[in-house]
């Protein structure tokens, strides 16, 4: 992952693992506008080491092996496009995800003051109203809009 900070004016986004798979493995059209913004540099994709490790683990699962011969191109794209962040501290905003494995996405988004957390995970989406109070929009990929 890059260690170069994004320019201050570049809004940040955190993608959960399934959003990354939608984009980099399945080429889902619904995430194309978001992917284009990241690739153009108008949006900073924020990621912590644990997120990359989870993606690498998912890519090794038998169900994925049928779709992806090698996870290496996906991880290379991750390393090229994601802005590496320090592991986030536990969110102090009082937002707790019912799925402890997904808490890291929420914690990073809050710690880095990301504008968006893109996910299809119901446990994270359930927090969207409370997250808005902290300037964070939690949404499915197709609901993402720049601005």
Record the SSE blueprint.
Elements: E1 12-15, H1 17-24, H2 32-40, E2 44-47, H3 49-59, H4 62-65, H5 72-81, E3 82-84, H6 103-111, E4 116-118, H7 122-125, H8 128-132, E5 137-139
Parallel strand pairs: 1-2, 1-4, 2-3, 4-5
> Averaging pLDDT over every residue, what do you get?
90
Q: For this structure, what is the CATH class?
A: Alpha Beta
**N- to C-terminal distance:** 26 Å
From the spread of the alpha carbons, the general shape counts as globular
Strand content: 5-15%
Largest sheet: 5 strands, parallel
What is the C-alpha radius of gyration, as a whole number of Å? 14 Å
Name the CATH superfamily classification: 5'-nuclease
**Residue share in helices?**
40-55%
Shape-level CATH architecture: 3-Layer(aba) Sandwich
Low-confidence parts lasting 5 or more residues at pLDDT below 50? Answer: none
Q: How many helices does DSSP assign?
A: 8
User: What number of structural domains do the residues give?
Assistant: 1
Give me the side-by-side strand order of the main sheet. 3-2-1-4-5
Multimeric state of these chains? single chain
- Indicate the CATH topology: Rossmann fold
**What class would the helix/strand composition place it in?**
alpha/beta
Question: What series of H and E elements makes up the topology?
Answer: EHHEHHHEHEHHE
Total number of beta strands: 5
């Amino acid at each position: 992952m890059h260690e170069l900070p994004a320019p201050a004016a570049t809004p940040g986004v955190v993608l959960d693992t399934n959003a990354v798979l939608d984009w980099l493995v399945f080429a889902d059209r619904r995430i194309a506008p978001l992917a284009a913004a990241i690739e153009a540099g108008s949006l900073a994709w924020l990621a912590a080491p644990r997120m990359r490790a989870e993606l690498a683990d998912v890519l090794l699962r038998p169900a994925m092996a049928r779709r992806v011969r090698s996870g290496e191109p996906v991880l290379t794209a991750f390393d090229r496009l994601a802005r590496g962040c320090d592991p986030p501290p536990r969110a102090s905003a009082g937002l707790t995800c019912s799925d402890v494995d997904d808490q890291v996405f929420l914690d990073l988004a809050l710690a880095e003051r990301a504008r968006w957390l893109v996910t299809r995970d119901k446990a994270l989406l359930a927090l969207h109203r409370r997250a808005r109070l902290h300037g964070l929009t939690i949404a499915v990929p197709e609901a993402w809009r720049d601005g």
